[in-house]
Write a structure and sequence with these properties.
Among the domains are: 84-157, Cytochrome c-like domain (Cytochrome Bc1 Complex, Chain D, domain 2); 219-295, Cytochrome Bc1 Complex, Chain D, domain 2. 54% of the residues lie in helices and 1% in strands. It has helices at 2-7, 15-42, 55-62, 84-96, 109-117, 120-129, 145-157, 176-191, 198-209, 219-231, 244-252, 255-264, 283-295; strands spanning 266-267, 272-273. The protein is elongated, with a radius of gyration of 36 Å.
Protein backbone atom coordinates (compact mmCIF):
# COMPACT_ATOMS: atom_id res chain seq x y z
CA UNK A 1 0.00 0.00 0.00
CA UNK A 2 2.81 2.41 0.81
CA UNK A 3 4.36 2.00 -2.61
CA UNK A 4 1.05 2.70 -4.38
CA UNK A 5 0.50 5.73 -2.22
CA UNK A 6 3.92 7.11 -3.06
CA UNK A 7 3.27 6.77 -6.83
CA UNK A 8 0.24 9.07 -6.63
CA UNK A 9 2.01 11.75 -4.63
CA UNK A 10 2.48 15.18 -6.35
CA UNK A 11 5.94 16.27 -7.51
CA UNK A 12 5.30 19.69 -5.98
CA UNK A 13 5.95 19.34 -2.28
CA UNK A 14 7.02 22.83 -1.24
CA UNK A 15 5.79 26.40 -1.88
CA UNK A 16 8.97 27.18 -3.80
CA UNK A 17 8.32 24.31 -6.19
CA UNK A 18 4.78 25.57 -6.71
CA UNK A 19 5.98 29.10 -7.55
CA UNK A 20 8.62 27.71 -9.94
CA UNK A 21 6.01 25.57 -11.70
CA UNK A 22 3.64 28.54 -12.12
CA UNK A 23 6.46 30.74 -13.45
CA UNK A 24 7.53 28.05 -15.88
CA UNK A 25 3.94 27.71 -17.06
CA UNK A 26 3.95 31.39 -18.03
CA UNK A 27 7.52 31.80 -19.27
CA UNK A 28 7.88 28.72 -21.46
CA UNK A 29 4.92 29.61 -23.81
CA UNK A 30 6.10 33.24 -23.98
CA UNK A 31 9.65 32.19 -24.89
CA UNK A 32 8.29 29.79 -27.51
CA UNK A 33 6.17 32.55 -29.07
CA UNK A 34 9.12 35.00 -29.13
CA UNK A 35 11.37 32.43 -30.80
CA UNK A 36 8.68 31.62 -33.37
CA UNK A 37 8.19 35.30 -34.23
CA UNK A 38 11.95 35.79 -34.66
CA UNK A 39 12.15 32.76 -36.91
CA UNK A 40 9.33 33.98 -39.16
CA UNK A 41 10.62 37.56 -39.24
CA UNK A 42 14.11 36.44 -40.22
CA UNK A 43 12.89 35.06 -43.58
CA UNK A 44 12.96 37.43 -46.59
CA UNK A 45 9.56 38.77 -47.59
CA UNK A 46 8.30 40.34 -50.79
CA UNK A 47 5.49 42.41 -49.35
CA UNK A 48 5.15 45.15 -46.77
CA UNK A 49 8.02 45.34 -44.34
CA UNK A 50 10.66 44.55 -46.99
CA UNK A 51 12.58 46.69 -49.47
CA UNK A 52 10.46 45.46 -52.40
CA UNK A 53 8.57 48.76 -52.57
CA UNK A 54 11.62 50.98 -52.85
CA UNK A 55 11.99 52.99 -56.09
CA UNK A 56 15.04 50.93 -57.04
CA UNK A 57 13.25 47.61 -56.60
CA UNK A 58 10.18 48.81 -58.51
CA UNK A 59 12.36 50.09 -61.36
CA UNK A 60 14.15 46.74 -61.54
CA UNK A 61 10.83 44.88 -61.81
CA UNK A 62 9.56 47.21 -64.51
CA UNK A 63 12.75 46.88 -66.57
CA UNK A 64 12.07 45.01 -69.85
CA UNK A 65 13.12 41.36 -69.87
CA UNK A 66 14.89 41.80 -73.22
CA UNK A 67 15.89 44.67 -75.39
CA UNK A 68 14.85 44.01 -79.03
CA UNK A 69 16.44 47.19 -80.31
CA UNK A 70 13.51 49.41 -79.98
CA UNK A 71 14.43 51.00 -76.65
CA UNK A 72 14.48 54.77 -76.87
CA UNK A 73 17.93 56.28 -76.53
CA UNK A 74 19.01 59.68 -75.35
CA UNK A 75 19.32 61.70 -78.54
CA UNK A 76 21.55 64.24 -76.80
CA UNK A 77 24.05 61.65 -75.62
CA UNK A 78 27.31 61.50 -77.58
CA UNK A 79 27.38 58.68 -80.12
CA UNK A 80 29.75 55.86 -79.30
CA UNK A 81 31.09 54.38 -82.53
CA UNK A 82 31.03 50.59 -82.74
CA UNK A 83 33.95 48.44 -83.76
CA UNK A 84 34.05 46.84 -87.17
CA UNK A 85 33.47 43.39 -85.68
CA UNK A 86 30.43 44.59 -83.72
CA UNK A 87 28.89 46.18 -86.82
CA UNK A 88 29.59 43.02 -88.82
CA UNK A 89 27.83 40.82 -86.27
CA UNK A 90 24.81 43.13 -86.06
CA UNK A 91 24.28 44.13 -89.70
CA UNK A 92 26.47 42.07 -92.02
CA UNK A 93 26.66 38.52 -90.66
CA UNK A 94 23.26 37.46 -92.03
CA UNK A 95 24.56 37.59 -95.62
CA UNK A 96 28.35 37.59 -95.37
CA UNK A 97 28.42 34.47 -93.20
CA UNK A 98 26.16 32.38 -95.41
CA UNK A 99 26.96 33.98 -98.77
CA UNK A 100 23.31 34.89 -99.32
CA UNK A 101 22.47 36.86 -102.48
CA UNK A 102 26.02 36.50 -103.74
CA UNK A 103 27.61 38.26 -100.76
CA UNK A 104 31.29 37.26 -100.34
CA UNK A 105 31.74 35.15 -97.23
CA UNK A 106 33.90 36.29 -94.35
CA UNK A 107 37.31 34.64 -94.75
CA UNK A 108 36.84 33.76 -98.43
CA UNK A 109 40.04 35.22 -99.88
CA UNK A 110 39.12 34.23 -103.44
CA UNK A 111 35.71 35.89 -103.20
CA UNK A 112 37.17 39.08 -101.76
CA UNK A 113 40.32 39.47 -103.85
CA UNK A 114 38.61 41.11 -106.82
CA UNK A 115 36.64 43.45 -104.59
CA UNK A 116 39.71 44.42 -102.56
CA UNK A 117 41.54 45.23 -105.78
CA UNK A 118 38.93 47.94 -106.49
CA UNK A 119 40.32 49.94 -103.60
CA UNK A 120 39.13 50.83 -100.12
CA UNK A 121 37.25 53.94 -101.27
CA UNK A 122 35.13 51.93 -103.73
CA UNK A 123 34.38 49.21 -101.20
CA UNK A 124 33.31 51.74 -98.59
CA UNK A 125 31.17 53.70 -101.08
CA UNK A 126 29.35 50.53 -102.16
CA UNK A 127 28.73 49.55 -98.54
CA UNK A 128 27.39 52.97 -97.57
CA UNK A 129 25.22 53.54 -100.66
CA UNK A 130 24.35 49.93 -101.43
CA UNK A 131 24.98 47.91 -104.57
CA UNK A 132 22.85 45.23 -106.24
CA UNK A 133 21.35 43.07 -103.42
CA UNK A 134 23.52 44.81 -100.84
CA UNK A 135 21.29 47.35 -98.99
CA UNK A 136 22.72 50.69 -97.99
CA UNK A 137 24.68 50.38 -94.73
CA UNK A 138 23.71 46.73 -94.47
CA UNK A 139 20.09 47.71 -93.90
CA UNK A 140 20.77 49.87 -90.84
CA UNK A 141 20.50 53.58 -91.76
CA UNK A 142 21.45 54.58 -88.18
CA UNK A 143 25.04 53.44 -88.69
CA UNK A 144 27.65 56.15 -89.00
CA UNK A 145 29.79 56.14 -92.16
CA UNK A 146 32.83 55.48 -89.99
CA UNK A 147 31.14 52.43 -88.50
CA UNK A 148 30.37 51.09 -91.98
CA UNK A 149 33.96 51.65 -93.09
CA UNK A 150 35.21 49.85 -89.99
CA UNK A 151 33.00 46.87 -90.88
CA UNK A 152 34.35 46.88 -94.45
CA UNK A 153 37.93 46.93 -93.16
CA UNK A 154 37.14 44.09 -90.75
CA UNK A 155 35.55 41.96 -93.49
CA UNK A 156 38.31 42.60 -96.01
CA UNK A 157 41.21 42.10 -93.59
CA UNK A 158 39.69 38.86 -92.33
CA UNK A 159 39.64 37.73 -95.96
CA UNK A 160 43.19 38.48 -97.07
CA UNK A 161 43.10 42.27 -97.32
CA UNK A 162 45.27 44.88 -95.67
CA UNK A 163 42.99 47.91 -95.49
CA UNK A 164 43.62 50.75 -93.08
CA UNK A 165 41.36 51.57 -90.16
CA UNK A 166 39.48 54.85 -90.80
CA UNK A 167 40.45 57.94 -88.85
CA UNK A 168 37.74 59.60 -86.76
CA UNK A 169 37.84 63.32 -87.38
CA UNK A 170 36.84 65.61 -84.51
CA UNK A 171 33.87 67.84 -85.21
CA UNK A 172 34.86 71.51 -85.56
CA UNK A 173 34.06 73.54 -82.45
CA UNK A 174 32.93 76.47 -84.57
CA UNK A 175 29.93 74.46 -85.77
CA UNK A 176 28.14 75.21 -82.50
CA UNK A 177 28.18 78.97 -83.09
CA UNK A 178 25.88 79.05 -86.17
CA UNK A 179 23.49 76.68 -84.40
CA UNK A 180 23.30 78.99 -81.39
CA UNK A 181 22.78 82.02 -83.66
CA UNK A 182 19.99 80.27 -85.52
CA UNK A 183 18.32 79.23 -82.26
CA UNK A 184 18.48 82.82 -81.04
CA UNK A 185 16.94 84.10 -84.27
CA UNK A 186 14.12 81.58 -83.97
CA UNK A 187 13.49 82.64 -80.37
CA UNK A 188 13.41 86.31 -81.37
CA UNK A 189 10.96 85.56 -84.18
CA UNK A 190 8.75 83.64 -81.78
CA UNK A 191 8.62 86.58 -79.36
CA UNK A 192 7.74 89.19 -81.99
CA UNK A 193 4.11 90.39 -81.94
CA UNK A 194 1.76 89.15 -84.64
CA UNK A 195 0.94 92.01 -86.97
CA UNK A 196 -1.18 90.16 -89.50
CA UNK A 197 -4.87 90.95 -89.80
CA UNK A 198 -7.52 88.79 -88.08
CA UNK A 199 -8.65 87.42 -91.43
CA UNK A 200 -5.11 86.36 -92.30
CA UNK A 201 -4.70 84.71 -88.92
CA UNK A 202 -7.97 82.81 -89.33
CA UNK A 203 -6.93 81.67 -92.79
CA UNK A 204 -3.54 80.50 -91.51
CA UNK A 205 -5.12 78.52 -88.68
CA UNK A 206 -7.58 76.91 -91.08
CA UNK A 207 -4.79 75.98 -93.44
CA UNK A 208 -2.76 74.40 -90.64
CA UNK A 209 -5.73 72.47 -89.33
CA UNK A 210 -6.69 71.11 -92.72
CA UNK A 211 -4.74 67.87 -93.40
CA UNK A 212 -2.82 67.76 -96.62
CA UNK A 213 -4.31 65.43 -99.17
CA UNK A 214 -1.53 62.93 -99.65
CA UNK A 215 -1.39 60.91 -102.84
CA UNK A 216 -1.87 57.19 -102.41
CA UNK A 217 1.45 55.40 -102.12
CA UNK A 218 2.20 52.81 -104.80
CA UNK A 219 3.16 49.72 -102.79
CA UNK A 220 4.41 47.82 -105.83
CA UNK A 221 6.75 50.66 -106.75
CA UNK A 222 8.23 50.67 -103.26
CA UNK A 223 8.53 46.87 -103.39
CA UNK A 224 10.39 47.03 -106.72
CA UNK A 225 12.80 49.57 -105.26
CA UNK A 226 13.45 48.38 -101.70
CA UNK A 227 12.09 44.86 -101.21
CA UNK A 228 12.50 42.81 -104.38
CA UNK A 229 16.18 42.05 -103.75
CA UNK A 230 15.24 39.73 -100.86
CA UNK A 231 11.51 39.04 -101.24
CA UNK A 232 11.87 38.22 -104.94
CA UNK A 233 14.33 35.29 -104.71
CA UNK A 234 13.72 34.61 -100.99
CA UNK A 235 17.15 35.73 -99.77
CA UNK A 236 18.10 35.37 -96.08
CA UNK A 237 14.83 33.65 -95.20
CA UNK A 238 12.64 36.41 -96.65
CA UNK A 239 9.24 35.00 -97.75
CA UNK A 240 8.84 35.21 -101.51
CA UNK A 241 6.00 37.32 -102.86
CA UNK A 242 3.25 34.95 -103.94
CA UNK A 243 4.29 32.14 -101.58
CA UNK A 244 1.01 31.68 -99.73
CA UNK A 245 2.36 29.05 -97.36
CA UNK A 246 5.27 31.24 -96.23
CA UNK A 247 3.13 34.36 -95.86
CA UNK A 248 0.15 32.74 -94.10
CA UNK A 249 1.60 32.80 -90.53
CA UNK A 250 2.86 36.34 -91.05
CA UNK A 251 -0.48 37.59 -92.34
CA UNK A 252 -2.14 35.87 -89.38
CA UNK A 253 -0.12 38.10 -87.00
CA UNK A 254 -1.95 41.14 -88.34
CA UNK A 255 -0.96 44.22 -90.27
CA UNK A 256 0.28 46.11 -87.20
CA UNK A 257 2.88 43.44 -86.42
CA UNK A 258 4.02 43.19 -90.03
CA UNK A 259 4.32 46.99 -90.25
CA UNK A 260 6.42 47.11 -87.08
CA UNK A 261 8.78 44.36 -88.26
CA UNK A 262 9.19 45.99 -91.67
CA UNK A 263 9.78 49.50 -90.30
CA UNK A 264 11.94 48.70 -87.28
CA UNK A 265 13.54 45.51 -88.52
CA UNK A 266 13.20 41.97 -87.22
CA UNK A 267 15.52 39.03 -86.58
CA UNK A 268 13.85 35.64 -86.66
CA UNK A 269 15.02 32.03 -86.75
CA UNK A 270 15.11 31.87 -90.54
CA UNK A 271 16.74 35.22 -91.35
CA UNK A 272 17.05 38.94 -90.74
CA UNK A 273 14.81 41.78 -91.91
CA UNK A 274 16.73 45.09 -91.91
CA UNK A 275 14.79 48.24 -90.94
CA UNK A 276 12.82 49.45 -93.97
CA UNK A 277 14.62 46.93 -96.14
CA UNK A 278 17.74 49.05 -95.88
CA UNK A 279 16.06 51.89 -97.75
CA UNK A 280 15.20 55.49 -96.90
CA UNK A 281 11.49 54.96 -97.57
CA UNK A 282 8.97 56.61 -95.27
CA UNK A 283 6.83 54.64 -92.84
CA UNK A 284 3.79 55.03 -95.10
CA UNK A 285 5.75 53.75 -98.10
CA UNK A 286 6.93 50.72 -96.15
CA UNK A 287 3.37 49.99 -95.04
CA UNK A 288 2.19 50.23 -98.63
CA UNK A 289 4.88 47.76 -99.71
CA UNK A 290 3.86 45.35 -96.93
CA UNK A 291 0.21 45.59 -98.02
CA UNK A 292 1.19 44.90 -101.62
CA UNK A 293 3.26 41.82 -100.73
CA UNK A 294 0.61 40.47 -98.33
CA UNK A 295 -2.24 40.96 -100.84
CA UNK A 296 -0.18 39.27 -103.57
CA UNK A 297 0.50 36.30 -101.31
CA UNK A 298 -3.02 35.51 -100.05
Amino acid sequence: MSDAHNEHESLIKTPKQLIAAIAAGFLIPIIAIVLLVQYVASESTSGAGSDSQTPEAIAARLKPVADVGFTLKDANAPKVLQTGEAVYKAACAACHTTGAAGAPKLGDAAGWSQRISQGQATLVSNAINGIRAMPAKGGNPDLDDIEVERAVVYLANQSGGKLKEPEVKAAPAAAAAPAATEAGAQTASATQPITSSPSQQTQAVASAAQPAAAAKVDGKKVYDTACVACHGPGVAGAPKVGDKEAWAPRIKQGSATMYEHAIKGFQGKAGVMPPKGGSTASDEEVKAAVDYMADASK
